[in-house]
Amino acid sequence: MTLMLLLDDSQELSIVVIGLSFCSYLLLKKKQPKRITDPLGITLVIGGPLTLATLSYFVSSFLGVFVTVASYFGILTLLAITYRTSPIHPLANYPGPALSKVSKLWAIWVLWRGKQHLVYKELHELYGDVVRVGPNELSIRHADAVQSTLALPKGPFWDNRSDPPSLIATRDLAVHAQKRRRWNRAFNSAALKDYEETIREKSKEFVESLGKRVEQEIDLNEWMSYFTFDFMGVMAFGRDFGMVKGGSDNQELSHLIEGAVLFETMIAHVPWAVPIFHRFPFFARAENRLVAFGVTNVEHRISAGSNRRDLFHFLIDEDGLESVKPSKGTVISDALVSIIAGSDTTATALVAIFYYLLLNPHCQTRLRREIQSVFTNGEDPLDFTKLAHMSYLTGCINEALRLLPPLSSGAQKYISDDSSGFMAGPYFVPQNTAVFVHPFSLHRDARYFSPLPEVFWPDRWIPPSERQYPAGTSDADFILNTTAFIPFSGGPASCAGKSLAMMELRAITCILLHYFQIEIADTDKVTGWENTLRDYFTLQRGPLPVKLHWLS
Ligand code: HEM
Prior knowledge:
By secondary structure, the protein is an alpha+beta fold. The chain has two domains: 1-85, no CATH class; 167-550, CATH 1.10.630.10. 55% of the residues lie in helices and 9% in strands. The chain has helices spanning 2-6, 10-31, 37-57, 62-85, 98-102, 105-113, 116-127, 146-150, 173-186, 189-211, 220-237, 243-246, 253-267, 274-279, 281-304, 311-315, 328-359, 361-374, 384-388, 391-403, 439-443, 498-515, 523-527, and strands at 130-134, 137-140, 217-219, 413-415, 422-424, 427-429, 433-437, 449-450, 479-480, 516-520, 534-536, 538-540, 545-550. The strands form five sheets. Strands 1-2-7-4 form a four-stranded mixed β-sheet. It has a three-stranded antiparallel β-sheet with strand order 3-13-10. A hairpin with a 2-residue loop joins strand 1 (130-134) and strand 2 (137-140). It is globular, with a radius of gyration of 27 Å. The N and C termini lie far apart (93 Å). Mean pLDDT is 89; it is low at 1-7. It binds protoporphyrin IX containing FE. Protoporphyrin IX containing FE binds at residues 150, 167-168, 180, 183, 337-338, 341-342, 345-346, 349, 406-407, 411, 487-489, 493-497, 500-501. The chain crosses the membrane at residues 12-28, 65-83. Keywords: Heme, Iron, Membrane, Metal-binding, Monooxygenase, Oxidoreductase, Transmembrane, Transmembrane helix.
């Protein structure tokens, strides 16, 4: 009624529209929408009466209603832009591209183009250690910020993924710690010992299958995926997909994962809109197929059982150690996470190791010499105690993970509104801010890795007595700050499968170099391989064509 009285003329209507837009904006800002119902609710509660009032005022002129409603949203947007770019915004002191301050659309655009890792690195080179990469988001490149940042809860990037959320998408620290118990059991030293046999079997099968293709051009990128998919299939579902035996991705898993990860990562920038996108089969097709794949395989594993203590054994709590048994939904989302987090990342690391060994044949020769000196009597190099103590091998693996961390742009964390902010090393980060440490930038920073931070130099990881310096460098230049080395992240949500991943990387690198001479099959493709990488949270990779020859 009051509203109707106010609407005496269009000037007063304008005041009402501006006032309502302002109130809506304050409400939206305070409430920090988490689901689509939040902004919709506010808009309907405020915009609804406004529309009705305008309808009466303009006596059913639809043009009038359109102008009023458009003005309402226009002013709302203008207020958001003004505040976000104003000096009173809490992140105003942090530099960054103008568009990134205005809207998350900038980040979606950067992601879509696939070169996010390079873009953020360039931004750090331009602006310094802290860059504002979203209206309320910071990217950090400073070793002193690593520990405190990685100890924070996960960010809104993980909101509204699956219900119930998987371990990796669980934001509440207490709930996460409770879920993580099953995973920690799955990767304690006794469990890892049990997995050794599976790695041995699958590694030998890998060599056998590759052995049938010697002297032919093969795409090592595809083959590494076959291996890690098969291996995680056995671990997570008790099921061998047979990709290595058949030499093809018979489940179309690469395709499914790539589609689902790209879709999920893009919409993760607007978490409140995720449920809408999930409703459209067109958008969610890859995601839905991946979930269906998870459901089928989990059901198969439950009905078939297993004679091994595999990862699934712990995820489903077959030992009955939890007071509340995990639901089937939780197990499905966790099993899917293990396939995505466990196979794609490990495949990227393996391909990266061989990419650098191909470009640096002297490193390949030196590593082979180390393998031959440790495994002297012709045995397969699959003794995990020996593998763990091979310094040059660890150097090659660490160096590949340093230059190309499989999650190159890291994992988003968040400082909630009930905290008063925190110190990320020397930098203050206010409440309500999403923040991540950018591994790709950090790992190539000369303050932490010197000399030659952009160069594959495994010696930086080995004891000083064995280290060989490249021409023009000396120990006077040497810096190695392991705090800045975070391929597996850190803190309470660090990679749960790190030890398993390291076992796979050591075993496959050694067994391939033990049996095969590996050479570049297409120089342009191999030297340009790094340019094929697309950072969609995980790294999508192009082909790496090689030729294998049996070593006599
Ligand atoms: C070279 C291979 C791998 C790399 C580089 C890697 C890296 C990472 C990173 C960076 C995270 C994010 C942590 C965070 O949110 O701060 C992560 C999480 C995770 N990774 Fe890995 N990972 C690898 C292999 C594996 C394997 C083999 C598994 C086995 C299933 C695995 C399981 C997980 C799980 C379950 C999480 C979620 C942890 C949590 O939220 O508590 N990863 N990984």
